[in-house]
Each structure stands twice: as structure tokens, then as C-alpha cells.
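It is worth pausing here to work through a concrete case rather than discussing structure prediction in the abstract. The textbook approach is simple: state the sequence, then state the predicted structure, then interpret. We follow exactly that order.
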Amino acid sequence: MKKIKGKSVNKWRMYGEIMIAQWFTVIIFSVYWSYSNHTFHELFFFNHPLLSLSPDFLLAFGCGIGISLLFLFLLIFFSKKVRTNISNALNDESIQFLLPTTFGERLLFLFVAITAGVCEEIIFRGVMLYYLNHLPFDLSLLVIGIISSLLFGVVHLYQGWKGVLLTTYLGAILFFLFVGTGYLWIPITLHFIIDVKFVFLPNGKKATTS
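Step two, the predicted structure:
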């Protein structure tokens, strides 16, 4: 149990509740999606991508991401100075209560990052794009991107208005990555990378043990 500004925060419980809520939502929706005679191809692939990407390019892109991630993780793991510098640059009071500090918390946060990457992208990119694109009236991709990104930002209101603006901006990037490439796994991967960095970085302001 940790104390942050006089409030006790059980991170194990908080992480568990986050994962359960998100996976429960996705599972319930998946059941509904299946019984509505929809295919998961409709959800994970955008049929008219703005960019035409060949399989060879996607393979090279995936290998590039993998090699870059490996290099980044090795750099962070073996360089305490790099970890500290990155942590200080990313330090934000509004999310300190959410960040892991102990080894156990970091291990569990890895699964939180996986959960957020998969579940939030399915909901805010896959689901919203599909349904907003199938309304009785036509919405442009730009308008759909703005709506879904704003909603993505609003659900992060616990991070304060600065966090809302940042996540709205991030949501827009992830949305146009999806419609630009046609592959939902690309924003899923990027979302995971953005969140998983906190597993390896020191928490700049550790909470005191109660």
C-alpha cells in the first residue's frame, strides 16, 4: 500500500481493476460482434487505407520495430543515467499515482500496458471507426478521427486537462495510423510501446510506504 498526498493507493488492486474492466468490455463486445454476423476482419482491418503498403514493407516495418525495441530496452536496462534522464523528462504529477515502483508492480504494469494497447485500440480505433463510418449520415475520416480522439482524451480526465490534451493528440496519431495503413495492429503496437516504458523507467517521485 502506498500513500500519495495523504491518500492510500493499492496499485495491485488498481491495476487489476483496470485490466478486468477493459478486458470485460472487449469480451462482451466481441460476443455481441460475433452474434451480429460481423467478422473480426472488419474490426481489425480498414478496407480503404490511405496508404498502399506491400507485405514486404510491412514485414520490414515489423522487423524494424522489433530491432528498435530491443535496442531501446537494452539501452534502458544497462544505463541507469538513461533511465533517470528519460524518467525526469516524462515526470508528471498527474500520473504519479499510477506508475509502478516495486518489481512486482512493474511486472503487473507490463500486463496493464498490453491490456491498454489491445483493448483501448479495439474500442477507440476499431469499434468507433466502424460505427461512426456506418451512421445514416456520412462523416469524413477527419471528423471521425476528431470525435474518437476527443473521446479517448476525455476518458483520461484523471490525468488532468494537460493529460486530456496529450492523449487526444496521441489518439489522433493512432487513429490516422490505423486508417493510413489499414492495420489495427500498428496502433496497438505503438500504444503498447508508449505505455510499457514505465515498466523500465524509475518513478521520479516514489510514494512513501504506509
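Step three, interpretation. The beta strands are 2-4, 7-9, 208-209. Residues 24 and 35 are 17 Å apart (CA to CA).
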